[in-house]
Design a protein that fits this description.
Elements (H helix, E strand, L loop, with lengths): L1 H17 L3 H35 L9 H5 L6 E11 L8 E5 L13 E9 L9 E11 L6 E10 L8 E9 L5 E9 L6 E11 L6 E11 L2 H26 L2
Antiparallel strand pairs: 1-3, 1-9, 2-3, 3-4, 4-5, 5-6, 6-7, 7-8, 8-9
Length: about 250
């Protein structure tokens, strides 16, 4: 209200003093408002950046409000994804390729072997006839001398609908012969930003003769709609500034 009054008085006084025509007076008023807004933004932006830099220099780490930083104004949501993971180590087009050989040819648990994977993820257990919804990309290492156990590090890269381009990251221990195994979801990207959760797996089919496997995955992920919220926040901020500028212009007309 104070700013509104000051602008009205300032514009009226200048028009009366210079005795300009109405049309020229309106142009002058618009130019005055534009210059004031420009200088306000020019002064405010560097000062806010300097304030942030000054905060960063206070120490190695500082506490921040992640809700304000990332626009996380809604509660987390829990999503359940079910698919089948196909590990193909043989044939003309394997999806799991050995990059580190066995530590010893006498190891019954293949200890030391490491494979890079780009495994297809499908809705059903039959890879050829089921719809593919993404890929599991990463590696697994045979990391036990006592039983067949895998250290698994992989990203689930989704290709399905709105989740296309989003990933969730799994890092954990997988005991192959256990009926049900559980591994943690440690992070994500895209729609799975700040994700955390749990993966439960069970073997659907294991081909002992060649090492191929089909595994059922049930992934439970707690996550925010980070990109959507950032988009909405940006749009609201933009239109808020436009409303303020429109109000200032109208105050001098």
């Amino acid at each position: 209200m104070y700013l509104h009054g000051i602008l009205v008085v300032l514009c009226s006084a200048i028009n009366k003093l210079l005795k300009w025509p109405v049309s020229l007076g309106l142009v002058f008023q618009l130019l005055t408002i534009s210059v004031l807004i420009f200088f306000f933004l020019a002064i405010a932006t560097p000062s806010s950046m300097a304030a942030r830099e000054e905060e960063d220099e206070h120490g190695f780490v500082r506490r921040i409000d992640h809700n304000k930083l990332m626009g996380l104004k809604k509660k987390e949501k829990l999503s359940h994804f079910r698919f089948f993971w196909h590990d193909i180590v043989n044939g003309s087009n394997p999806t799991a390729v050995q990059v580190v050989p066995l530590a010893s040819n006498t190891s019954a648990t293949f200890f030391g072997l490491i494979r890079l994977i780009d495994n297809p993820l499908t809705l059903g257990p039959k890879m050829r006839s089921s719809k593919m919804v993404g890929r599991a990309q990463g590696f697994y290492a045979l990391a036990s001398q006592q039983d067949l156990g895998l250290l698994m590090v992989m990203n689930f890269a989704s290709s399905e609908a709105k989740y296309n381009g989003s990933t969730s990251t799994v890092l954990g221990w997988n005991s192959v012969y256990a009926p049900v195994r559980e591994m943690p979801v440690i992070r994500g990207s895209g729609l799975f930003g700040f994700a955390r959760g749990s993966v439960k797996t069970k073997t659907h089919k294991l081909y002992i003769q060649n090492g191929d496997a089909t595994v059922e995955y049930n992934v439970y992920v707690m996550h925010y709609w980070v990109f959507l919220l950032l988009f909405v926040t940006t749009i609201m901020d933009y239109f808020g500034k436009m409303v303020i500028i429109s109000f200032l212009v109208k105050s001098c007309l």
